Every structure is written in C-alpha cells, then in structure tokens.
Amino acid sequence: MQKKNLLIARWDVNSIKKKLEDKFNINGWFRCMKDTDGVYNKIVFGEPVNFDNWIVGVKTGEVFFDSGMYQGNARNYSQWRANNSYWDNLITSSY
Questions:
Q1: Positive or negative torsion for Cα 94, 52, 84, 20
Q2: At what angle do helices 51-60 and 13-24 cross, to 10 degrees?
Q3: How many domains does the chain have?
Q4: What separation in angstroms does the CA of 66 have from each of 4, 69, 79, 83?
Q5: Is residue 25 situated within a structural domain?
Q6: If DSSP states are collapsed to H, E and C, what string results for 31-55?
Q7: pLDDT digits over 37-60, tens only?
Q8: Is residue 6 part of a domain?
Q9: Could you tell me which residues come within 8 angstroms of residue 59 by beta carbon, excluding any fewer than 6 positions away?
C-alpha cells in the first residue's frame, strides 16, 4: 500500500531524549559477549550515549526503528535497534 505523506510513527524530541539519556547517558552501557561455543566470556563497556550522538546514528541508518510487525510475530512491540557493528565501534574497554 502506498500513500503520499503517510505517517506511521512520530516521536517528540524531548520525550525520546529523556528516555534515551536516562538509560544510556548516565553511566554508559555494557554488553556481555559470547565465544564461538556460545559461552559468555567477556563484558564490554561503552561511554555514555547522548541524544546528539544517537540521532547521528539514526540519520545514517545505523540506528533504526523496528516496529516488530512481521508475519508470524504475535507479540506486539516496537523498539530502536542498532547492528552489533554500531555498538562495537562504541566499545571503550573490556574485561
């Protein structure tokens, strides 16, 4: 279906900025990494992410909105996602 000027979703900058910065712009973030056998073997950390840095990722397509709307998915959800390569580029330390 094609419609001119179709609006599927809309976010208020202040609302999304608050949610993003409350989650990622205080102490940064971490990710648990697995080895080739699927065993967790490392924790990586990244610096805090603020709205200005995040919106650059949205504009370049590195950060994208996943509506969760696809056949076979009975669970209703939507979230912002980024490929592993996006997060890999933000890693500052690991243990």
A1: positive
A2: 110
A3: 1
A4: 22, 8, 5, 12
A5: yes
A6: EEEECCCCCEEEEEEECCCCHHHHH
A7: 999 999 999 999 999 999 999 999
A8: no
A9: none
For strands 40-46 and 63-66, give the pairing: unpaired
Tokens representing 66? Answer: 């996943």
- Tally the residues of the chain: 95
3-state secondary structure of 92: strand
In which domain, by residue range, is 56 found?
13-94
Pick the range with the lowest mean pLDDT from 4-13, 32-41, 66-75, 85-94. 66-75
What is the Cα–Cα distance from 48 to 61, expressed in whole angstroms?
20
CA atoms within 13 Å, Cβ hemisphere of 70: 4
Q: What is the amino acid identity at position 85?
A: S
